[in-house]
Amino acid sequence: MMLKLVHLLGMLACGGQAALQVSISLNKVELSVGESKFFICTAIGEPVRLDWYNPQGERILASKRMALHTETSRSRLIIYNAIIEDAGIYRCQATDASGHTEEASVVLEIYQRLTFQDIQSPQEFRHGETAEVVCDVISSPVPVVVWYYQDREITEEHHVPPVLSVSQQSFNATADYQESVTFTCITSGSPDPLVTWHRKGLQLEPSEQYIFNRLEGGRSMLTIHNIRQGDGGTYSCKATNKAGSQEREIFLKVFVQPHITQLKNVTAVEGSAAMISCVAEGEPLPDISWRRASDGHTFADGDKRQDGRFEVRGRHGKSVLTISGVRLADFGRFDCEALSRIGGHQKSMFLDIEYIPKFLTNHTIYYSWEGNPVNISCDVMSNPPATMLWRRERFTISAEGTANTRVYSAEGKSVLEVTPMSDRDFGRYNCTARNNIGVRYQEFILAQADVPSNPYSVRLSAVSQRLATVTFMKPDSHGGVPISYYLVQYKEVGSQDWRDIKSHSVQTTVVLTGLEPNTTYEVRVAAVNGKGQGEFSHTETFQTLPIREPSPPAVHGQRGMGKAYRLGLVKQDDGGMPIVEYIVKYKTDKEEQWMTKLVPGANDFAMLQPLQWNTRYEVEITARNVKGLSEPTFYQFFMPQKPDITAESLFSGLGLGAVVGLGLGALLLLLVLVDVSCFFLRHCGLLMCITRTLCSKKTATSGKGKEMEEGKAAYLYTYNSRPTTLSTTVCLCLCFIH
């Protein structure tokens, strides 16, 4: 038995996924009847299924003679006790998550050993009769039979008609994968028969696609290259000689990847029915399904979903998706997918929905006043786009407008600007939106705006000597246009001069400042909109508090530098008059005598110093204004022990560089002190050298010679004297240097 491996190259998967590739382990195998063999199929990529198909195109299921062992990307097919009918093309097909498939195929040929059947010996005949000696032998391929008589080959003196057999009667192949298939005919006869190949009644001629070969043993082969869909069907092998002819048929089954040939965009009117048709071809014919892209819902043949609005019917490679009562939500992309065991193909179409204009707002009442322009907006959604017109009392307002009207238009929006000049300009305006589906109208009312009504429930709270908080309820009517702010007026009782204060935006709380203590005030509130100021509310009366002593100050403490302590002073209620000063009294907890410190009222802290280490202090702080003193605030704090000052503590906060710098500075200072000592005590050193240099410039040449001799003598004296003190040694070194 021979095994032929045909490796199909994996196509790249759509959408940027990893390419799927399939291969089978063997190239060619020959088996005899009764033998067993296994084949390994390996897939590269991300397969979710691996299936095997027999020569008849049926998916192989595990049985007694065929076993399957499948893992994620590897599948093994085992054929036990092979028989003649097992011959043919076997395919391994891999499928990924998107439904894309790739496959590899192998050709399995079965050989049967020569076997003589029903041999009768001796065979007896009557004299004169025609004797027919039968030699019944079976094998695959068809054997060549030679007769011998008394050890001598019997040669034919007469012509023998051709005997023709085919090793395999059916083949499978996949179109458009550059596959090839080879048919084999085995012939015998005398004379040797001529073999020709035929299809659809016509004899095939050699070409780039059809290749003919003849081998020893009467084998004739036809190889078909680059198989396409039209190559499927019946082929015949015909053997002819002078004694006659014989013909055998071979069937080629060609599988074709699904391909969608017809899918168009569809436009439907809202409320009507939409029919979307998808036509696909392939061998075998693919199954067709639909998917709505907006939500991923799928529809297959026979489905009826969503209140019966969606229905799919398909037959012979054509599927029709019918949507009854089309809604705007159905607008968008639909995908058609054709799928067979060979592979799949997907295309998309777009469903457009046309509908009558729809108004997008219920805001139909606008307010204005004479001389104040207002924009009346008509917003429309429609498909196809609508044309929009404005009407006033059955008269159309042109795009150019009139003396007090103008029209501004954009797609889906038309704005009518009206500047009322008199009462006649107020009233009803009509917006008309029209497209080829229908027409809709919306009426707008332009009403005269008014000033707001008066606020009410005016209340006073948090009244102090100089502050008061006014709260109120907003008016029942804003007059048709939004309130801009609230005007709060207040004055002293008996005065005619009202003072104004505006609210922040439309807040209904206002704080009055700069009031006089122990004074009675009147307050009223009015609302203001674009039209103007409304009526004032009912007048309320309140009285500020009289001047009194300040409230006790709040105190918080913080340790100061050294023997100092910092007290933070937080002013509370000043009683209606500024704080003149803070009186700070403090003492230790063991003393009776208080120390007093006066702090100006504008200050926010008091510094207590000098204090004693390791001592607890008591503090009493009183605030004073012109009215008098507040109640005292009591405070305590504790001064810690005196810190130890050591070398370690001094340098603990310094870095390595700072310590080294201090050391070098101390050394330099020491050298300067030593040099000055050498100058006065030994008449040498750096300072001495500088002095001599300066003096030498002011003397004559003889003087310089004398000084040089003296310097030499001084040098010799210094060298011979061998001083032992540190200062003398440093002087000597400095003299040498200079």
Automatic annotation (TrEMBL):
Pfam families: fn3, I-set, Ig_3. GO terms for cellular component: plasma membrane. It comes from the Eukaryota. The chain crosses the membrane at residues 650-673. Residues 20-107, 161-251, 258-352, 357-447 form the Ig-like domain. Coiled coil: none annotated. PANTHER family: CTX-RELATED TYPE I TRANSMEMBRANE PROTEIN, NEURAL CELL ADHESION MOLECULE 2. This is Neural cell adhesion molecule 2. It comes from Scophthalmus maximus. The gene is LOC118312164.
